[in-house]
């Protein structure tokens, strides 16, 4: 009997199948997940809305274009607050100063009537003085010699205000008013009327405009709320309230000295000076008038004369002062003024 042949033995690899199968399954699963993610991403990208934010596209029509459409601005997505237009443009000198009819607040402001009654305070007569700036060579304020527009108007950022019918336009104003003893005559009517006109004029000024007040007899008395004499103050409500108190404190006394008060006003370089006096004497001499014209750097000097005659004088130093400095002159018969007390 032949001996049995022994079969060769091989080492068995244990767990090979169990190791390969999980790896293959995991790889296949991850590949499928990647495919699903890629397909989902492509579909989401194709259906996604436009990117957030604002995209502006401005198109401008050439002057030679045949199209009649106006330049357009397209907003792909409006901002959260919405696109708006300001219907009240800032007023600059180059823009049309007339208010828009759709602004009731501004219209109400511009149509506001002065609180001070002008009944019985209007001058007996008024006249514009020739061609402004002829004798002095100083730049003339052309608008001051045209027909005065209504009060309480702002033109190109400038204020338009007046005293006894004389209009002045600009950003900076100085009021130089006589307070000598003669202003207390006629029952105090001259000084009381001057104060009322000054306070009414201040109402026309805005917070961006500047002003100063000088009452004078032998010496100037200057409004100085901050303690700095000779400086213009802005037309804020606080400043105007303080100015009203200052004006109310003024009394008439003493003699008259014009030149010092006018010189102080000119050193402030205002656009307009309103100069009011009832003094026939002393008059400014020709030399003093020439000195004022030389000091003047473009200020329009409007003169208001209080007098006891029924009609204005043909020519005096106040007429010449206005004519030589681009201003206007007006005469007021004090007999027509209401009594101050």
Question: Describe it for me?
Answer:
The chain has 7 helices and 13 strands. It has about 350 residues and is α/β, with parallel strands linked by helices. It has a domain of about 200 residues: Rossmann fold (3-Layer(aba) Sandwich). A hairpin with a 2-residue loop joins strand 5 and strand 6.
- Using the coordinates shown, work out and report the CATH topology of one domain: Rossmann fold
CATH class of one domain, anyone?
A: Alpha Beta
Q: Whole-Å distance between the termini?
A: 165 Å
How many strands in all? 13
Assign the CATH superfamily of one domain. Answer: von Willebrand factor, type A domain
Helix content: 25-40%
- Going by CATH, the architecture of one domain would be 3-Layer(aba) Sandwich
The helix-and-strand class reads alpha/beta
Spatial extent as radius of gyration = 42 Å
Mean pLDDT: 72
Report the β-strand fraction as a percent range.
15-25%
**Shape category:** rod-shaped
Number of helices: 7
Taken in chain order, the helices and strands follow as: HEEHEEEEEHEEEHHEHEHE
